[in-house]
Amino acid sequence: MSIHDTPAAHSPARRNWLKAAGALAGLTLVAGPSGLVMAADAVKYGGDKMAGGVVDDSLVFLSVAADGIVTIVVHRSEMGQGIRTSLPMVAADELGADWAQVRVQQAPADEARYGSQDTDGSRSMRHSFRAMRHVGATARLMLETAAAVRWDVPVTEVKAVNHAVVHAASGRSLSFGALAEEAAKLPVPPRARISLKTADELRYIGQTSTRGIDLHDIVTGNTHFGIDTRLDGMAYAVIARPPVFGGKLKSVDKTAALKVPGVLRIVELAGSPPPAMFNPLGGVAVIARNTWAAIKGREALVLEWDDGPNGSYDSKAFRKTLEAAVRQPASPARDQGKTVATLAAAPAARKLSAEYYLPHLAHATMEPPAATVRIANGKAEVWACVQAPQATRSNVAKALGLTYDDVTVHVTLLGGGFGRKSKPDFAVEAALLSKAMDGAPVKLTWTRDDDLQHDYLHTVSVERLEASLDAKGMPTAWLHRTAAPTITSTFAAGANKQAPFELGMSAINVPFAIANIRVEVPEVPAHTRIGWFRSVSNIPHAFAIQSFTAELAHAAKKDHRDYLLALLGPARKINPADLSDGWNYGEDPAKYPVDIGRMRHVIELATAKAGWGRKLPKGRGLGLAVSYSFVTYVAAVIEVEINAAGEIIVPRVDIAMDCGPQINPDRVRSQIEGACIMGLSLAMSGEISFKNGRVEQSNFHDYAVLRAADAPRVIHTHLVPGTLDMELGGVGEPATPPIAPALCNAIFAATGKRIRALPVGMQLAKKG
């Protein structure tokens, strides 16, 4: 049958289409990946709540060429988490495609077409899994229908299998490529006709055998990261930025810099006073024929700065400010029972308190920020390693005075992100420099020094915990004061208090079975740029809470695992609102309650696999911690050995994770291992400090990241099985928070020394 012919009126395929089309006549609905949602619905959760929402249009995300090659568009940024493999894999599985004939195309920034493209919050798969299944299933039905129409058989008699549609009754088969043109001309079937495969029909989802789409190119150096962009006629740039946040340029002598061979132009950039949002810090840019010439030109600049209001910022002094803040009553974010009265009435012998400190942290991505911009005919093109393409597009448009539609953002691979590359200030800088060069392409590179000294840092914090204990050593009251400059200071002037979403990261939503719980939040100012960071406020909150539970267990002379399980109480599901958490990572509390049974299970699984309770030689110890973050449950047991010099050796780590179903288990394990390495690195050596408003660290010699020799000898990951009818949890971030407290609890078990301030650094070094 010609693709231009109309199927006969008696054709089963045509009758099926007519019935389906008629069933939808007259309805006005908003389609989401989980089903049909009435437009009048007010409350939105998950992906539907994000700017741009969730799109599951198969014509947007999937195409089949005449040669059978299936191209699947991925709208999230790849930064090592494997999303360029995992999302296409989901659609390919529902389609029935041969993975060897699948190609992946990176989407440009286009929120209206692709929906939300922000790659953060451990939600790419959580928000897009069902949408991509729908994309693949829709395309499958269109191919099956095209075959059924050609053969004039009911569509129910044909099936897409391994890149072909087969009709078992007659033994006929047509490849996807042979059907592509006909299928593309069919109307997209209504949602009511789309059926997803059962678990036993899936070939890729939940399996470990799917090869990463970029692995070969990454290993052979054939990939395109932000720093790899090359365009004809391109210039190269670096920027001398104010050394103090909020500072500005007083004067510059360009004479020597302009004499450096290769230097083309020196451009002054205006800064943005706090709140800086995603705007450039300002300074002096050196544009040259290559990056090395630009760097040497920058070194030759003679600069004088006005440091502004943060010129006296000293992180050691600020720690004392934070400590003073948590030692005074503050306004409560959660106030359950009679905590203050219970603590006041408890005898001193039955009270325990402790303070925990965590310094500023830098993202230190292996690829520092880099962006290239070209402007021509009133339109700008951006090539950049960004986690937030839509924010990049809008910010570049605003900086250049262009419309949103006049800016195109090409997303490259990211050599790490961790939240830093959600802030596209570096793309805006590159855009302004291209404009200064009359639209010629300019690639801006941040050096490692730039990256560490001008980052959107993870906040510094002091956490104070107090508890009163009954005769059995169990808490009768729990008080937590958490003092930290807030991320919202980056966006709003005068913001000096942690926001609800920050407190909802393991502080107010502590799920212990304690009658009296109070969480207080002192006000403290910000003196630096602060941004989200892998696992964000879960890191300091979990470090404090999970360390304090170990201290309580020791005071009660009880095993830490048994004590922690007793604190959690029996298996039950808690509405996050009952914990004063109205955020819950943006997810529906009915679908994502805090499940104590699942939390207990990961503790029991991790400790069982680690051999909790086994006798260890002197100088060795096991430490435990658990965390609920990004709607996923993780427990970690770390074994440490402290040698004669006081150095830390980590022979083994066991991590149990319950994230619901694991769509790409191999990548889940990789993410857990990476989070463990990063968590240990931060705990042992991560610290950004300030003196006279300036960051004291400049490179990896004084902001050390974990080297291979210091990494755990083995990391065991234990995944709790999930079924496809379960809600998905996050994966990229949840394994980070329990690492630091598990490490420090293990150090105590090995040495009897409590570590309450990070990094551990030289605190165990033998003196003399």
Structure description:
This is Xanthine dehydrogenase family protein molybdopterin-binding subunit. Residues 220-309 form the Aldehyde oxidase/xanthine dehydrogenase a/b hammerhead domain. It comes from Janthinobacterium rivuli. The chain is 29% helix and 22% strand. With 768 residues, it is α+β, with helices and mostly antiparallel strands. Helix 4 (83-95) packs parallel to helix 6 (124-151), helix 13 packs parallel to helix 14 (425-436) and helix 17 packs parallel to helix 21. The model is unreliable at 1-40 (pLDDT under 50).
Topology summary:
Blueprint: H1 12-24, E1 29-32, E2 35-38, H2 46-49, H3 58-61, E3 62-64, E4 70-74, H4 83-95, E5 102-106, H5 111-114, H6 124-151, E6 158-161, E7 164-167, E8 172-175, H7 176-184, H8 215-220, E9 235-240, E10 248-253, H9 255-258, E11 263-269, E12 283-288, H10 291-300, E13 302-306, H11 315-326, E14 332-336, H12 339-345, E15 351-358, E16 370-376, E17 379-384, H13 389-400, E18 407-411, H14 425-436, E19 442-445, H15 448-453, E20 461-469, E21 475-483, H16 500-503, E22 516-520, H17 538-555, H18 560-568, E23 573-574, E24 594-595, H19 596-610, E25 620-629, E26 632-642, E27 648-658, H20 665-685, E28 690-691, E29 694-695, E30 715-719, H21 739-751
Parallel strand pairs: 4-5, 9-19, 17-18, 21-22, 27-30
Antiparallel strand pairs: 1-2, 3-4, 6-7, 7-8, 9-12, 10-13, 11-12, 14-22, 15-20, 16-17, 16-19, 20-21, 23-24, 25-26, 26-27, 28-29
Helix pairs in contact: 4-6, 6-7, 13-14, 17-21
